[in-house]
Amino acid sequence: MHIFVTGGSGQTGPAVVAELIAAGHAVTGLARSVAAATRLEALGATPHHGSLDDLDSLRRGAEAADGVLHMAYGGDFSDLDDMMRRDRTAIETLGRPLEHSGKPLVVTSGTLVMPAGRVTTESDEPDATGIAAFRIAGERACLDFAARGVRASVVRLAPTVHGPEDHGFIPMLIATARKTGVSAYVGDGANRWPAVHRSDAAALFRLALEKAPAGGVLHGTAESGVTMKSIAQAIARGLDLPTVSLTPDEAAGHYVSPFMARVYGFDAPVTSTHTQELLGWAPIHPTLLDDLEHGDYLAPPVS
Predict the structure, then answer these.
(1) Kindly report the CA angle at 103 between 41 and 68, in degrees rounded to 5?
(2) CA angle 201-125-100, nearest 5°?
(3) What CATH number should be reported for the domain whose range is 168-194+224-269+286-294?
(4) pTM of the complete model
(5) Euclidean distance between CA atoms 289 and 296, whole angstroms
């Protein structure tokens, strides 16, 4: 297939592009800068100049493709409503050229949309009042195309997609530990986060494009829930720092923002059993704690 990809030059995107090309697919990637285009070319993809706000570029990319993978997401996190509208509009623009074709449209969301405090499955409803409720509109925009002749599916990624040169939530935790001199967790640290290695996530995206059914909701999690205390302890060992428990009020001042304090205190375990059985997806790469111990996360910062 010829796949049009947004977000192919981001953090997870290059692994996905490489996975698709290795499997024999051709990839055209949205590129909003020269640096992004250069990175895509180095991976063997064809750059398609444009942005999520350039709807004509999105439409042209989708029209020329046998399938679309939408991973890009961004904007001003101080205006979540605008981010939500921007993402929904992009998905609607990407999906319309695929109507009545049976072609795949795969859209990325996150498992933090799910209700807190219990292990949730792919068939559970997302929490419309939850911490990541702003992602739900994009999910619905994608899945609406399943009734319009598109093989539309949503991949909910774990909040921690780990691997080399990560710059997500875990590196932010590590940077805070270096700055404050303690590796912290909220409360008793028993709250759980799903995790998936970037290479396993890339394989899931490929399988979703190749054979996910219309209307499918998939969970990109290799580990259902890693406790935040165990993450903090691994960071503490690697940096030779003490661990400390914070109250929610203390956490609001300790982390980079009160919102991030809520995120790090969130209990959000999910299962991917159905996803693995449906697609034959079998995560094989290191766990998050293995990566913290043996990967590049705790290497001294480059000055």
Answers:
(1) 30
(2) 70
(3) 3.90.25
(4) 0.95
(5) 12
CA 132, CA 157: separation in Å to the nearest integer? Answer: 12
Indicate the helix (H) or strand (E) that contains 194: strand 192-197
Question: What are the pLDDT digits (tens) for 78-117?
Answer: 788 888 999 999 999 999 999 999 999 999 999 999 999 9
Provide the 10 A C-beta neighbour count for residue 249: 10
Residue in the structure block whose two tokens are 């400390």: 244
End-to-end Cα, the chain, rounded Å: 43
Q: What is the pLDDT of residue 194?
A: 97
* CATH architecture of the domain with range 2-160+195-223: 3-Layer(aba) Sandwich (3.40)
The token pair at 299 is: 């290497």
SS3 204: helix
The type of residue at 160 is T
For the CA atoms of 230, 233, 235, 236, what is the dihedral angle to 10 degrees?
Answer: 180
Q: Is 54 helix (H, G, I), strand (E, B) or coil?
A: coil
- Location of each CATH 3.90.25 domain in the chain: 168-194+224-269+286-294
